[in-house]
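User: quick one - fold this with MTE bound?
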Amino acid sequence: MSRYSFPTPKSSEITPRDVYLNRRHFMGGALAMGAVLATGEVAFAAPSGIEPLKFSAGLAPALTDKPTARELATTYNNYYEFGTSKADPAHNASTLKVRPWTVEIGGAVAKPRTVGIEDLLAMELEERIYRMRCVEAWSMVIPWVGMSFSKIAALVEPTAKAKYVKFTSAARPEEMPGVRSRVLDWPYIEGLRMDEAMHPLTFLTLGMYGETLPNQNGAPVRIVTPWKYGFKNAKSIVRIDFVEEQPQTAWMTAGASEYGFYANVNPDVDHPRWSQKHERLLPSFFASRATEKFNGYGAEVASLYTGMDLAANF
Ligand SMILES: Nc1nc2c(c(=O)[nH]1)N[C@H]1C(S)=C(S)[C@@H](COP(=O)(O)O)O[C@H]1N2
Ligand SMILES: [Mo]
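Assistant: Sure. Structure tokens for the protein plus MTE:
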């Protein structure tokens, strides 16, 4: 894995949360939502449960595009447990109880364990600014906070039988209105091949924009693989299993011909119902740009797929 050696962050590079609160943007948002007090200060209700995080800076391939506005990345979401339209999760996800929260990690491992969210938050965190690409042909640039998934694997010591990793999201009808209808086969299941999961870019994500995740973005813990379509990135994870067989994912159950297991971003393989050659980098709904193979992360990940037919294994 030596070709993936990222620079080691110095502790002097700890990024203050203010960097992503981006004063001007923040003030603008607050003015739109809140009231200006007589003192000139802006009063607004902070999103509940969101806390600042400590992390070291940037260990991802550099991007030319600037991060998407936080306001957009937290209000235009896919999270079917809270409804199928893009605005639903931001409206509905406050009912999800993200504390206490544990993740059961098991399967083909020497040391199965239950990890509390506090234990994960106490680990060394870093920020990764990743391009994200939804299968629906829109993209965003998001500053995530978390750690390489391989650190979690190291905790439980996968055995030689571990060929894939299966992620299971929470499915709580009382807290998640979408789970009361059968839009998908709940719980939401996703998976990665072992070498994909262990790739340094694969990110166990606890925060974004310098703070803990908003519920609509998958609080309190989700996975992020930036070279794959967004649906691979299971939100609000409660179980991680190291398994022998390729997991049957929720989207494969919904439509095996439309949503493959690999789901690598690939301009040459169209979705059966639309082209993947172009995408719209939000907030621009009009200017389309060429889709990049592996979402621009080919230098890092293409070697995982040497000799594989990526049209058959879409
Ligand atoms: N549990 C769960 N995880 C999910 C989804 C979902 O509906 N349920 N939607 C996926 C899709 S299609 C996308 S594009 C991303 C969106 O993540 P974001 O809202 O943080 O941008 O989450 C993915 N993870
Ligand atoms: Mo998506």
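One thing worth noting: The chain has one domain: 17-301.
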